[in-house]
Amino acid sequence: MDAANVRGVRRLSTLVRHLIVPSPPSSSSSSSTEAPPMASQNPNDLVAPSPAAAFSSVFAHVAQGPEDPILGVTVAYNKDPSPVKVNLGVGAYRTEEGKPLVLNVVRKAEQMLVNDPSRVKEYLPITGLADFNKLSAKLIFGADSPAIQENRVATVQCLSGTGSLRVGGEFLARHYHERTIYIPLPTWGNHPKVFTLAGLSVKTYRYYDPATRGLNFQGLIEDLGAAPSGAIVLLHACAHNPTGVDPTPEQWEQIRQLIRSKGLLPFFDSAYQGFASGSLDADAQSVRIFVADGGELLTAQSYAKNMGLYGERVGALSIVCRSADVAVRVESQLKLVIRPMYSNPPIHGASIVATILKDRETYNEWTIELKAMADRIISMRHQLFDALKARGTPGDWSHIIKQIGMFTFTGLNSQQVAFMTKDFHIYMTSDGRISMAGLSSKTVPHLADAIHAAVTTVN
Ligand code: KET
Q1: Does the record carry Transferase as a key word (predicted)?
Q2: How many CA atoms lie within 13 A of 123 on its CB side?
């Protein structure tokens, strides 16, 4: 029987099944575990499944996976019917009204794109939108960066910060001689998974001191000092997640000297440029001192937070090389990483970013809106600190106003967090991290009550 005939017989037998076979009882008809309806018993029926195939799934052994420690908080929050619930889990900016914010400048850029009939939906190149890549490198390294002027930077558009880290990690696993990456302890929970799956081996360096709720600078220097020469070091460019603790400019300089003297390779994760200080340039300073010394480095940039483009998945990976010809070859290899992974990146988000960055007026509008977001978060810090002081909550809470960026690393333990979720419907990650960007003047008193109750009743 030829292929057309086989298809014909299949279509017919499907039709026959629909006409003859009685439907199963309606109460179970939507159950996903239910077996498919019995096929007709006609021995000539080419699509009749074997009895075993009809009743068991080839995936029956698949175990239920755990929810993600950060994004799973939103899943739990969405299921809670309480009217007083507050989501302080994922790092996503909310307005005073608790609503997601689309920046005015983003709306404006989108309108410009929609109104431009020359815009098409063709595939982008594997490396993404060329304008976007150039402007992204300028944003992080500075307009007058020698590395950019000397064409020593290979930049590729990637799927937001995560995708940039993943592509960078896989490039290093394929082409760099040292496969170990040192990440801070603690760090963003996805880092170890992203780098392990990229083919690197993950180790940690000390970063945070719970006793002082500040930087464990001594531990950091000792651990990086003991790392094998050439090892990769993941650094948060600013607004360290989850601790909200960054090195001072002097400490950054010492870290730079140590990294360069040992020949370690810095990989910056820049997910919060502009959110730490409100200034894009100030927040890129850590990266720029490493570019200024002429050495090599990688940077993963995200526009999720600072442009509010979370779901557009827009980011960039830049690799600063010693020379222009190395950068050309590096870019050619990045393409070989990207092409089989997702072929090429999406066009819309990158077009929004490029539209905003290339025009002085829209760029300035963005910086004003960004500063307003950063300022609102700082004001939340003060309001929460004052509210705890007013309640006489035991403990020193000054770290709430000292820490920077989107998060406060409260020091609350996982039992206290579980209590706050159960009794107060406050959703946050179990490590005690609060997304300050999810808080508003209206919800501060409720959070302060919850923290007060947790600290005074749960150890
Ligand atoms: N790096 C860091 C340090 C980071 O906090 C995030 C996101 C990312 C990269 C990736 O962001 P992307 O959306 O891929 O550009 N952090 C928040 C969201 C998440 O976990 O996905 C968070 O910590 O809540």
Answers
A1: yes
A2: 7
Evaluate: CB of 369 within 6 angstroms of ligand 1: no
Residues 141 and 188 in one domain: yes
Q: Which amino acid belongs to residue 103?
A: L
CATH of the domain at 348: 3.40.640.10
- The atom of ligand 1 lying closest to the CA of 90 is 24
Domain extent for 293: 123-358
Owner of token pair 């029987």: 1
Q: Are residues 145 and 291 in the same domain?
A: yes
Residue located nearest, by CA, to atom 11 of ligand 1 = 161
- Which atom of ligand 1 lies nearest, measured to the CA of 435? 24
What is the model's pLDDT at position 55?
A: 80
339 and 392 in one domain? no
Considering only CA atoms, which residue is closest to atom 1 of ligand 1? Answer: 271
Range 302-315 average pLDDT: 98
Please give the C-alpha separations between residue 182 and each of 96, 230, 334, in angstroms, as whole numbers. 38, 11, 22
Q: What is the pLDDT of residues 237-262, one digit of tens each?
A: 999 999 999 999 999 999 999 999 99
> Does one domain contain both 141 and 232?
yes
Q: Ligand 1: does its nearest atom lie under 6 Å from the Cβ of 243?
A: no
Whether the full predicted model's pTM is greater than 0.85, yes or no, is: yes
Pocket test for ligand 1, best of 70, 166, 190, 312 (most atoms within 8 A of CB): 190
Question: How confident is the model at residue 370, as a pLDDT?
Answer: 96
